[in-house]
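Schema walk-through. Below, the input block comes first and the output block second. Nothing else is stored per chain. Lengths vary across the set, and this one has 80 residues.
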Amino acid sequence: MTPEEPAALLRGLQAGVRVVVRYRIDGGFTDALGTLSDVGADGCTVATRRGDVVIPYPLVTAAKTVPPAPPRRPARTRQL
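--- output ---
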């Protein structure tokens, strides 16, 4: 896979799709898992649980769509 392919995949997606994106950071790599909220000319934005992550395309090393998150389980009730 060439470095352009993951970025090309992201450019071809519409906002609202759930994705995981691996990208370079100082000292290594990290992943962003969430909903693709913006697809721009120079990068994309992924809405994660911790907030929006803006990722420039040249830093992307891998990307793919993923299925929707499973529903959250209800809170446990304490039994005495």
